[in-house]
């Protein structure tokens, strides 16, 4: 099965498309058991969502499939990494993607995702440094103000 490039993660399904997958999944569940394919399709749709709660639900479903259906692990690794990446859980994303790259070193989708994850880690690092610098500046201003008052 060919997997989409990681850039495809930025394109979410329409609400009606996701609704079709949701209805199929819940219909099968109410009949007793959702097939792995239906569960996977719904998880994939959730991971592609722009809503964090839906992405998290997709990651949970993929985790269940990963644990219970070893033949589907390859697909799950990629989408688990993708879901974690989209939620900003870069260490988890790296971990799942690294497992896939270890198994398939020439996997272009995993290589593409690895680049996106690294950019996310770098961006997060810059944001963290800016927040720290801002907090230090505010702290310095407050401290200077307190010292002036004591004089």
UniProtKB/TrEMBL annotation:
<dbReference type="GO" id="GO:0005741">
    <property type="term" value="C:mitochondrial outer membrane"/>
</dbReference>
<keyword id="KW-0677">Repeat</keyword>
<keyword id="KW-0472">Membrane</keyword>
<dbReference type="InterPro" id="IPR016543">
    <property type="entry name" value="Fis1"/>
</dbReference>
<dbReference type="GO" id="GO:0000266">
    <property type="term" value="P:mitochondrial fission"/>
</dbReference>
<keyword id="KW-0496">Mitochondrion</keyword>
<dbReference type="GO" id="GO:0016559">
    <property type="term" value="P:peroxisome fission"/>
</dbReference>
<keyword id="KW-1133">Transmembrane helix</keyword>
<dbReference type="InterPro" id="IPR028058">
    <property type="entry name" value="Fis1_TPR_N"/>
</dbReference>
<dbReference type="Pfam" id="PF14852">
    <property type="entry name" value="Fis1_TPR_N"/>
</dbReference>
<dbReference type="InterPro" id="IPR011990">
    <property type="entry name" value="TPR-like_helical_dom_sf"/>
</dbReference>
<dbReference type="GO" id="GO:0005778">
    <property type="term" value="C:peroxisomal membrane"/>
</dbReference>
<dbReference type="InterPro" id="IPR033745">
    <property type="entry name" value="Fis1_cytosol"/>
</dbReference>
<comment type="function">
    <text>Has a role in mitochondrial fission. Has a role in outer membrane fission but not matrix separation.</text>
</comment>
<feature type="transmembrane region" description="Helical">
    <location>
        <begin position="125"/>
        <end position="146"/>
    </location>
</feature>
<dbReference type="Pfam" id="PF14853">
    <property type="entry name" value="Fis1_TPR_C"/>
</dbReference>
<keyword id="KW-0812">Transmembrane</keyword>
<dbReference type="InterPro" id="IPR028061">
    <property type="entry name" value="Fis1_TPR_C"/>
</dbReference>
<keyword id="KW-0802">TPR repeat</keyword>
<keyword id="KW-1000">Mitochondrion outer membrane</keyword>
<protein>
    <recommendedName>
        <fullName>Mitochondrial fission 1 protein</fullName>
    </recommendedName>
</protein>
<comment type="similarity">
    <text>Belongs to the FIS1 family.</text>
</comment>
<dbReference type="GO" id="GO:0000422">
    <property type="term" value="P:autophagy of mitochondrion"/>
</dbReference>
């Amino acid at each position: 099965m060919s997997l989409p490039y990681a850039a495809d993660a930025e394109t979410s399904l329409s609400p009606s498309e996701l609704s079709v997958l949701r209805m199929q999944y819940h219909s099968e569940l109410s009949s007793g058991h959702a097939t792995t394919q239906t569960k996977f399709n719904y998880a994939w749709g959730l991971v592609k969502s722009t809503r964090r709660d839906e992405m998290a639900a997709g990651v949970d479903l993929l985790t269940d499939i990963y644990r219970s259906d070893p033949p589907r692990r390859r697909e799950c690794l990629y989408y688990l990494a993708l879901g974690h990446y989209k939620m900003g859980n870069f260490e988890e994303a790296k971990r799942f993607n690294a497992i896939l790259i270890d198994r398939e070193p020439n996997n272009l989708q995993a290589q593409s995702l690895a680049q996106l994850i690294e950019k996310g880690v770098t961006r997060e690092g810059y944001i963290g440094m800016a927040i720290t610098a801002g907090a230090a500046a505010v702290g310095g201003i407050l401290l200077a103000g307190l010292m002036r008052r004591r004089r």
